[in-house]
Description:
By secondary structure, the chain is an alpha+beta fold. Helices cover 34% and strands 35% of the residues.
Amino acid sequence: MKYALVLTNSLEDRERWESMSEDEAQAARAAEVPRWNALFGELGAGGKLLSGSELDDPGTAKTVRLRDGERVVTDGPFAETKEQIGGLMVIEADDLDEAITIAARIPVVERASVEIRPLVG
């Protein structure tokens, strides 16, 4: 079964990253990237990772709505929440239990959350 894993970032974590100097951010990324690479490597080798991408900063988002036949485009993410979507992965898992096991290994789960949604069709 295919699942979408919606990776969030907490507001506190986003603020922490934004307050870092360039050197601090580079060091923090260097410390975390090997964990991501190991997970992607393992999932890819097992045919479990179908795709995965980090999203750009929420400030670059546009939200589109159609109201009374008029297209309305607003800046920023759709929901006002303390957590914002930071990435998306699509995996192939034998069942929900395996999807939960994979989600629990994603580094952001230690600071925010990973939502698991079965793909339809």
